[in-house]
User: Fold these one by one.
Assistant:
Number 1:
Amino acid sequence: DGLLPDSVVSDPTRIRQILINLFSNSIKFTSKGHVRIVAKFVPQVDKTPAQLQFNVIDTGLGMSPDIVSKLFQPFTQADSSTTRKFGGTGLGLTITKRLANMLGGDITVTSQPGLGSNFQVTFAVETVANAEMLHPDATPEPTQAPPEKPAVSTDPTIDGCRILLAED
């Protein structure tokens, strides 16, 4: 939706996790119709940082306002029949919203039963100096791949720490 910068500074791993989670959920709850992602760049205004905004829009089951209000609470799902039919723990959207918040953004939802849902996620980003603005249909020039990061941290502040990673 509009012009997009060819590059921004943010956490690509977390953005990828968030978009994959939202897109996967939309596909899971859309048996017919479509799921689409719309990207938009919102430039910096006064002290509000520039943002990337993604809308994941589906024509799936949709939800009532009561269900939407509980959507980001841990271990909460629409109802027990949804859990039986589609599976899951009810943690995916909670984690996704927290990740978006950590990136200086948020997730909001609009939905209507039987008509589908629109999950809008925003991330604060920094634009790269001299970055070009690309039309949504434009293909950026290929760039050289960044150098591989070392597999072992050399940061002494985390040496000896144990990390638990839980994936859904």
Number 2:
Amino acid sequence: MTVAATAQIISAKKLPPDVLRAAGGSIYAPRGAARRLFYDRSPEIIIDGPAGTGKTRAILEKVHLVAERWPGSRCLIARKTRASLTQSGLVTFQKHVLPPSSDVRFHTQNQQFQYPNGSVVAVGGLDKDSKVMSSEYDIIAVIEATELVEADWEALSTRLRNGVVPFQQIIGDCNPASPSHWIRRRAACGHLVMHKSTHRDNPVLFDAGSGTWTERGRDYLAKLEALSGLRRDRLYKGLWVSAEGIIYAAFDREKHVIDRFAVPSDWPRIWSVDFGYNNPFVWQCWAKSPDGDLYLEHEIYRTGRLVEDHARDIERIANGLPKPLDVFCDHDAEDRATLERHLGVTTTAAYKGVRPGIEAVQARLRVKQNGKAGLYFFRDALAAADPELADRKLPTSTVEEIEGYVWDQKRPDVPVKCNDHGCDAMRYAVAGVDDLARRNAPAEIADFNLLEL
């Protein structure tokens, strides 16, 4: 069956076929939520579910089908940042959706795929939205829609007015997030339709013919099942839940994670470091505003590398930035000496009082009367995602840790020591800037059981 024939079935509002054939004969067989997506013409759609269910593939296949079926149509593939789109959605589109023999060509200057029939599939990030928001589209596909704020989603929706395709539609994929996320609120109000995908929807993981998991499926699900806490609930079970006993309950991605701006050169920089090899090594560069607010400007979050290797990356990233006012480090003497030798900086042993440090971070996350918080994270602060951590579905940045950073249920005053390396480095920075070592010296001696040993 050709793409045109398939699209005619869909446009006639009949159930989609079991197999869609893309140009060149490659086969894509939508199942479950992906199959429902192909005949749903709702203006706003989210396909959600646990990790690895084929959500991104489904929305990109629909984009490709629309571009093939309606000559002259305009589609957009978008993500919150252009860099993250390159690392994720575009790889899937080019490697799995577009057949090798396709005549579709990518035009670098225009940042769009040009189809022989005149259709266009543009790509863009909302961190560089001038081009994205200046065009009109028939279909917009958003990768990882939970990264957007509701205003982003609504702004994109205003660009759905190209009028070539008989239905104008914005679709997004995502893993579950907080139950109070705007996507859930928007669905509850009837503004968007949600389709729940499962691991059985992905033919790579599940063989529908035999009703059994493939070898790859068993291995992949074992990785997800081994996760703990919030990440297991969301990425394995597909639940929209918040962590029980979450420590930084005031953290809100819509408020605290912001687009980069040009940080003035006279703002002091503070570095914080949590050493690790098997566990992540974390380096954070914070900019301190005249009001005393901290902005995470740059971050390294990587496993399997030596301190001297990280030092070279820090030197490259920090080139052109002011020298750090302070460098607050984990207490490993050898690693500190290595860092000092390679970077020519003096480090300070970080204040290790856990509870006072957490309370200081909590205070900075609260929004003040002036509408501002005392702690922010640049959306693109991370230098590069660690591929091994990403493959294991573990946090790849401090922001990804925060929602799963929880109190130990058996020891209510102590956080769970798991996936907390960025949170530790953040606490070192805040404790150093707020001078907790001096302010809490008596409490530290009296309450030594709350110190990290």
Number 3:
Amino acid sequence: MAAVPHYVATAHGQVLVWTAGAGRPALVLPGLVLAASVVAEQVAQAAPDLAWHVIELPGTGGSAGVPVEMAGAAIDEAARAMGLAAAPMLACDLAAALGMDRAGPVLAVDAARARGWAERGTAPAELTPRGDGTHLTALWAHLRDAHVLDPADPMRAAQSGAALPTAAELDATLVVCAARPGAYHALWRACLTQAATLAGPATLPDAITRLRALPGPARADIPLTPPGHEAWCDHADLPHGRAHLWRAGTTGRALFALHSAPGSAAPLGPLLHGLARGRRVVAPDYLGNGRSSKPARPVDINRLARDVLDLADVLGFDDFDLWGTHTGALIALETALIAPERVGRLVLEAPPLLPPAFTADILANYLPKLRPDGWGLHVQQAWNMRRDMFLFWPWYRAERSAVRPLQLPDAAFLHAWTIGLLQSGTTYDLSYRAAFEYDTQRRLPLLRRPALVCAGPSDMLADGLAKAKSLAPDHVTVATTPATVWYPNQTRRDVEATLRIYDEFLAADRP
């Protein structure tokens, strides 16, 4: 049973809640070794007649913006907002420590395992991002060992307990725990100090049986009120899946910001903040990318552009402007070609314009399969793909002639980009492949809306501006910008200057 994510606003930041099942509501804290989405599907399968509300723990995943020290308060506030302040709660392993002071009853699941970890001081290794990505390897080993090894004798595999998680379930868990690895480490330590006295049902089925006997509210509601912050996360249900949105600004003209493949729109944070004054900026993760759902469907740029139009319909935007980079530039272009009457002005940053032979080589080598591996080998694959994208163009051509004149970003930046790639999972390549298959040279001359085609000097696609200039209609401006605002190692002055260029172009001819 597929779980559905929702954001709930609290005074401490947004909390992500996964819902599954239907009937009387019940709360769950998923513990620190399985993702909330995985636990939501497990409890819904075990008891589909209950409406499960599984809270992604503060400091992790979609709740990563909540400070760990405010975890208990944020969980309580989210429960109150859903009308579940007094609802019975299942709390798995160490997370039961977060529910000790709540008003409603708490059933600690797998308390013996949590006590065993507390008695031996079991904890993840230091998780500060490292340049070689091995902190993610250490996190994977920690999560796998938490399920495989006996807490009472961690030199042996446990012979009993719940079924071991699949590689895909461990992968989903790593992505959630690694949203802010330092926060996850701190959350584990904080819960561990209170776990020695935990007691509760031995297994999930036992806990569900006890929960059924407890009184609780008849229904719950997910509040739809925006958080009232300058920037926030949201969801929108489209015909082909649930899109995750990064949003900023509450008044003014609508602007869609469309990201580069293969990760999510998270790196566009500077752009959202920079252009949100007097605008409503929405940056969706494409279906198949980031935190959006992963539908099984063919993908091309036309389909992704129609998703943008569907999103505009859902959000009530009759007309809007478009900003897109790399893959996003092509989606913006195609959106304007499909529905020119709805599009005002466009910024197309570094649309791919590559020679046919180079494109064929890219399609053959740039997009290897990225499948969850039981030992976490795919995590190092993802890290090194992301890292080498800054060293070579294309990344797989590790030779002197392909060296890029860039500095490597710091480990924290690489970490964030790698997690975006891992969030996209086995469908990361669909939008990427669609971009390289798109016939930009044929489509760009057909554009009838005012547009700025541009690129920063460090962009590996900046060479395409010369080709763009030869193809673009007269009402399309082609120019170099001081920076690529979502790239690392850009100066603040150049980023601000580039944002001004975008702002002035998009605002031209408007009262």
